[in-house]
Amino acid sequence: MGKSKVTIKEIADMAGVSIATVSHVINRTRYVRPELVDKIEKIIVETGYQNKIADKERKLLVGRESTIVAVIPNIESTIYRDMVAYVKQLVSVQGYQFLVAITDNDLKEETQVLAGLLVNKKVAGIIHAPVSDVAANYTKLIQSGVPFVCVERNILGSGIDSVEFRDREAIFKGADYLLASGHKNVLFFRESTDSTTRDERTKGFLSALQKYNINTNDANIVDVTLENGEDDCMLVIQKALRRYRPTAVLAGGNRITLYLMKTLRDMGIDCPGEISVVGFGDESWSELTYPPLTIIRRDVKGLSTKAVGMLFEKINTGAVISHDCYADVELVVRKSTKMLDNGPFGDKAAAPDSVVLTKEEKQRLKAGHFRVAISFHYTGTSWAELHEKGIREELEQFGIDVVSVMDAHFDSELQNAQLDGIRLQKPDAVIAIPADDSRTREKFQELSKVSKLVFISNVPDGMSKNSYVSCVSVNESENGTNTGRMLGEYCKENKKKKAGFIIHGAAFYGTRVRDNAAERIIKDSYPDIDIVTIRSFGEISNAYQVARDVITANPEIEAMYVSWDRPALLVIKALKELGREDVAVFTTDLDHGIARCMEEGIVKGLSTQRPYEQGRAAAAVVAKSLVSEEQLPKYVGVQPYQVEPKQLRLAWKEIFHESMPDRLR
After folding, report:
1. Predicted model pTM
2. Could you give the CA distance from residue 425 to residue 406 in angstroms, rounded to a whole number?
3. Distance from the CA of 166 to the CA of which of 137, 400, 461, 630 falls in 20 to 30 A?
């Protein structure tokens, strides 16, 4: 066309779109359909308008309306610090100067800042995180005609544009996760400043309590005044932790998260052993803490991009955006939280370190020449070897002898015969994993009359609480939930929709809880994923044929949950033979075979028991029971360990207490 002074309005008329749409295509500030982008960009080239764009990008605007200003409460909070960086990049590329004004979250200071900006002819627009939500406090700003957009916080009133996070949904997600994990006594720390943000976060917390039928009048909520400084904030947090004694804490802000973690450290409180923590804001350090912090993460880049796009639309067209605009939030589950588990009789799980031997008890053990026998359902795995190693090392320090180790090869009749042999040995205590929950009950009941019994993983059906000392197990609810969540996140990220479940058909308490938890988390948290089929195997060897049948009948399956590693290896064998290595497998328990499959890429994630720690915990309970009349916990829960491919080597060292073998690297 050769037109040298074409305007953006003429470009819009030629394309049959609004000026705002052309602006979005030029500035990349909002999604526009690809075919429309192509059309507009073609017109821009044909008219020579791209030269005008290039000139604008080469030099900053000068004179009137050349500056964009971000008015924010502080620069300490990660959200504002990151937002400033994103906004600066977005406005600078469009030729504007960029300035930041700090209000210190003080209304009087903010009023003075805004008054100065409104008389400054260079100010083209304002990105504003307001101190207050009352429109009357911003009458001059609203009436000035200076384009502005509220971010993260809002001013209540009509005709005020804003980009916010779904704060109610964000806090609801965090609280819901903790409550679903069995925590009833959850403490919520929130910022004391009056704002729509604070109100929305409070509503999210109360909504989660209502979902679990917890009276909101009993809500544990503590206000933290950030303006009072770090020491005062940490003192408030410390007093609240001592007063409410929560099992879980939810932080309602970035700096609150930091002060909370510092306070827990200073108080010597173990996370998540004593208190589970869900933080807020995804600070850069949150993944580097020990343990890595479960966090409510907000898309600050998305917020900034939407806000700048909205501001330039107002600058270019004067239009007010009529619809609500929100940036995304998500819950990132790491390792600062644990599920509260219940044992076979509903007993709440005690932590392994709650079983403590006194100096006097240790002396009595060494003088007592006690003897312990071990009855395994199967010993042909690293899992069993680590259990035995943990048991032996714990007992040896007290001078307790292991007189026999039996392997039932998953045969209940063989285990019954072995239990008769153990009874003849007259050990002081027996550590056992039942081969069958019902067929071994009678023999264990007889054995309990002459020896102290400590079970690992599960208790035979029908045994009374008084007939055994304790049951030590991984938290199977969390084990299954971890695995199900990893499957769900994989499918979500990779846009997969179809999953299959291959579960244990035998009525073992632990595997039943684990499998149910994995299924429940998919149905509750990932409604877009269709569990196409749930098939069970009784004998481990049957898992191979079950997998072949499942994939043959349901070729659309894209991800598979398998109850634990040994049947998972047979499922993987079937998948490979069928040429379906594209099916992602998720399972529990780490071993050599599964590690190799994770290295190959077919196993995408797993949650594993800590057999060495479980063995030591079982031995500690036995030792305590031999010299103490103290009531020991009926159920001791060991937190599982979540493993993803990138963490495999570290996980191996954590679980096996040795470096990963070279042949697996």
Report:
1. 0.66
2. 13
3. 137
